[in-house]
Write a structure and sequence with these properties.
This protein is α/β, with parallel strands linked by helices and about 325 residues long. The protein is about 35% helix and about 15% strand. It has eleven helices and nine strands. It has a nine-stranded mixed β-sheet with strand order 1-3-2-4-9-8-5-6-7, with helices on both faces. Helix 3 crosses helix 11. The two termini are about 35 Å apart. The model has no long low-confidence stretch (mean pLDDT about 95).
Amino acid sequence: MVSETLVLSTPEEVSSRINLREGETKLGERVQTIKSLDELKDCSARFVLLGIPEDTGVIANQGVAGASTAWEPALKALLNTQENTFLKGEDLLVLGHFHFPPSADEQQENLYNQVSYIDDQVFPILENIFRAGKVPIVIGGGHNNAYPIIKAFSNASAQKVHVLNIDAHADLRPTLGRHSGNGFSYAIQDGFLDRYGVFGLQQNYVTAYMQAYMQQNKRIQYRFYEDLLLQGDIQRSWLSFIEDFGEPLGLEIDLDAIQNVLSSATSPSGFSVAEIRRILLAPQKTFAYLHLAEGAVELADGRRSPLTAKLIAYLVSDFIKGQQAL
């Protein structure tokens, strides 16, 4: 199945987002694009950038819409990053983005069905990327998109996979209809996800049901943010937490885990930007993918922060640098 909603990036579209300066080379001047998915395997770029700008999963989870607004400005910020010895545009393929119009019917059952439709569109594209031996970097969108990414990762690997999630929430709500709060529940239930680690989980957001579920499932590991605050050294705690996770291994980052970053669940308490950047720049693990979820430039309630786009560009470039250093 080939997605009917994927919009491939073209050289002309990429160029239109670049602010050219004489004597400088921007990353966007060197990134790669393709005309069809058949060209994936022959493309020399190791990393593949893909946008899933949608809010349906967030709305279905009764969150504040706005995750759909991050992709375009984040892409522009990344393309206008300087190319130099630290980061080469030719290492990145800008594949494109999905186009999912907002749902006209926000009845709960329809929203669940729409998220399942998004799953079905996203999954085959990610599977193609994984089978081509590439490392997808996915910019959301809601965290519901973790499920089709993990499904594709598992199918391409022909085994259950492991995933680390830096998140204030476990996203392990019951499997009673697809939304942004149960992507990992479905991945476990459907046999795609083996070991699942949540780093920075905040006690204020853990339901009694979720706490009991995590305690009973020995394949789920978690480190509460409150414990990390008492321990003090975030980098050391992270390295200790991930030590026993083998490959194949995926990395999820929900931007609501970072203090004051605009998202559907913006929080005044969380990791600093520097702490997350340090994790990406010195990962100690090879990751098969990176998924940056829930970030927003503008929320439906009127809150705005253009800095989210630049933050995402930092995280993407840090991830590439860290993985290339291994």
